[in-house]
Design brief:
345 residues; alpha/beta; Rossmann fold; two-stranded antiparallel ribbon; globular
């Protein structure tokens, strides 16, 4: 029932489950039924908690199945999670109470993935969050999942590429924005330049780069008036290299790096910091387009296979909230590679 006398839970790593004589048999039984994964596909994510399979499967592996695995591995009893002070097993988020008390933070892409994890953490650390996403129903789920927080969480269903919606986002903040996390983004189809369609180029550039530009442009005057503020943009390993994704996505994220560095320079000395986080592989469950370029995929595959680890959305939120917070008071214009070391390979 246990690994080193510890119960198998949703927080236990996938690798520990597979290596456990009972847990491994249970997981392989599920894999043998077909669906989102086979054992070889789990190799890059062995270090992630079993719970992350729900997000990674994009709905094919339901929460109920993970819960059932935990029950079966523990004789039908729900085990208590390891104590918070235990440093063994996968990394666990540890919120910093009061870090954002009195601050209003705008978070885009807040209904899923990294944006959701960031909005949730800021709210749990005392901040007033303006949570922005295209999907109103998913924003409602975010609010429902944070019933015990005492601060306001304002939701805005809107499109960051629309100036009208950008204006609504700023209005929802009621005249004060202490920090902005530009997280909303979409994947491309891995196409090389000669295959990239106008539609793919326009959509990816609009969401990943133009949206961050428009919202930053609208927010910065409030920060200038206040004499302080923090902006964190989400770039990517694709913003640091050419072999991480397709043409449109790579260009968009290089643009985010340029946007970050230019703004950091322009507003330095005004109490405003502008930084970026560059993720590597992240288990967000955000889907790729329905069709993916065979040429681009074949060219990228050996380089993507070198990704040293897949992060959780909460691990990226830890990097983002650090840069958003006053803990990063002396950091401006940085592009923080939060990629498990991929950028140094």
């Amino acid at each position: 029932m246990t690994t080193n006398d510890r119960p198998l839970t949703g927080s236990t790593s996938i690798g520990d489950w597979l290596d456990h004589p009972e847990g491994g048999a249970l997981v392989r039984e599920v894999l043998g039924q077909g669906g989102a994964f086979d054992e070889s596909s789990l190799a890059p994510v062995r270090g992630l908690p079993l719970q992350q399979l729900v997000a990674l499967s994009q709905g094919q592996l339901p929460q109920a199945l993970v819960d059932d695995l935990v029950l079966r591995a523990n004789g039908g009893v729900v085990p208590e999670e390891a104590a918070g002070g235990d440093d063994t097993g996968p990394w666990r988020e540890k919120a910093t109470p009061g870090r954002f008390t009195g601050k209003t933070v705008v978070v885009t892409g807040a209904a899923s993935g990294i944006g959701r994890a960031t909005a949730s953490r800021v709210a749990r650390e005392g901040g007033r969050v303006v949570a922005v996403d295209l999907f109103a129903d998913k924003l409602e789920v975010l609010v429902a999942d944070l019933p015990d927080i005492d601060v306001a969480l304002v939701t805005v269903a809107g499109d960051i590429t629309s100036q009208e919606d950008v204006d609504r986002i700023v209005a929802a903040a009621d005249g004060r924005i202490d920090a902005l996390a530009n997280i909303a983004g979409i994947n491309d189809d891995f196409s090389p330049l000669h295959e990239t369609s106008d539609a793919m180029w326009d959509k990816v550039i609009a969401v990943n780069l133009t949206g961050a530009f428009k919202l930053s442009r609208a927010v910065l005057p409030l920060m200038q008036e206040a004499g302080r503020g923090s902006v964190v943009n989400v770039a990517s390993e694709a913003g640091l290299r050419g072999n991480a994704s397709g043409n449109a996505y790579t260009v968009s994220k290089h643009g985010v790096v340029g946007l970050t560095k230019s703004a950091a320079f322009m507003y330095a000395g005004q109490g405003i910091r502008v930084n970026a986080v560059a993720p590597g592989g992240v288990a967000t469950g955000i889907p790729f387009p329905a069709t993916v370029s065979e040429v681009g995929s074949a060219r990228l595959r050996p380089f993507q296979a070198a990704i040293p680890s897949i992060a959780t959305a909460e691990e990226l939120a830890a990097s983002i909230t650090f840069l958003l917070s006053d803990d990063a008071v002396n950091i401006n214009g940085a592009i923080l590679a939060s990629d498990g070391g991929w950028s140094v390979q």
